[in-house]
Amino acid sequence: MFDINEIRKRAQAASDAASRQLNESMEKSRKITEQMQEDMEAAQAAREAGQQQDAEQAAAQQRQVEILGQMFSPDVMAQMAATEEMIQKAVDEKVAEAAALGVEGMMNQFFGDDTALVAAALETLAMEEEDEEDPELDQALEEELYRILEEKLAQIDRLPEPEPIVYPKGDPRWEQFGILLSGIISHLNDHRLDGMDVEKHIPVMEQQIASLVRRSWGISGRGELLDTIRYLTKEGYVLRCRLYGEASSPEALMEESDDEEACASVCRGWRFAQWYKLRFGPEFLVGWDVGRAAMLARWGCFLGWITEGEALGILWELSQKAAEELHSWREFAESYLLGGMMWKLLFGDSSAESYLGFLADAATDLLTGKGDGGQWRGCPWPAPRKIGFQPRG
């Protein structure tokens, strides 16, 4: 069941976050205006006292010009104010409607195609940190998280799924498959999955996505985006898990400069890799790396940092990598849960329980068709292409 108070709380928090940037800009403008006023008053007082020299007057005038140059134009301020008002109005309306509609109506209202703006305000990327303080991740909680992860993996393993099918090299379904590799993050953020664009191209959504990528990944442009995608494709958590799994002890992975927190992180990562290396192996985490890289490619295309052709090329390579290492959407989802668990452990984040729940629920919707989901079910996993028998000469 949905808790309307929780939704209201998250809606308000999202609205507050959207307006903080405006408030900071307005505060900056206020300080600049106050400084300009002080300069003008000082200049006036000096003139009245007959103490202002021509050079000082010129300097004061130049100062005023510089200050005015730093201020936002009226058009910009009006646009920012209108954006905040639009977000707040939309959030208030949707929360009121949700309270009156009940659970089923609320699902349709929040996840419909016409509520992308509100969805972006309510549901920021799952990777972002929560404002509330979580309990410390100690040994007992770590063991409990392993138990929860096993439950979620079993939940995914029971999901129905169409049999894989062979996609010829030029099959247009490869493009759809590449887009759907971003399915879990897209689902959590109510992004579109019917094409390359994650949202409608309106200024407020472009600002939301740019802010999301910058805060969550530290990416502000093309170069950083491509570097991160390259890292996820060539190294990522597959390499990290391999190194941790091959180490004889966590101490073998530590450096002299590591502090206590860094050493604790290494120990948690080492225990994770040792626990699962015989069951899955490091290559199984390719879904975690590929899924995030696919999402970054789509975000980058939406923001204009890469062209659509470049994004499609990246998704093609990611698709081949995923299809080579994994054999179903279920395996892809399980890979994503394992990678998400390791990520949370390395950073000592005790919110892993709720995070794993979000991931498992998203995968379930993508495979069973709940709500507006079922996109994975409609695009079977690519089966390996059969190669005819070639006799040795």
From TrEMBL:
<feature type="compositionally biased region" description="Low complexity">
    <location>
        <begin position="42"/>
        <end position="58"/>
    </location>
</feature>
<feature type="region of interest" description="Disordered">
    <location>
        <begin position="1"/>
        <end position="58"/>
    </location>
</feature>
<dbReference type="Pfam" id="PF06889">
    <property type="entry name" value="DUF1266"/>
</dbReference>
<protein>
    <recommendedName>
        <fullName>DUF1266 domain-containing protein</fullName>
    </recommendedName>
</protein>
<feature type="compositionally biased region" description="Low complexity">
    <location>
        <begin position="12"/>
        <end position="21"/>
    </location>
</feature>
<dbReference type="InterPro" id="IPR009677">
    <property type="entry name" value="DUF1266"/>
</dbReference>
<feature type="domain" description="DUF1266">
    <location>
        <begin position="214"/>
        <end position="381"/>
    </location>
</feature>
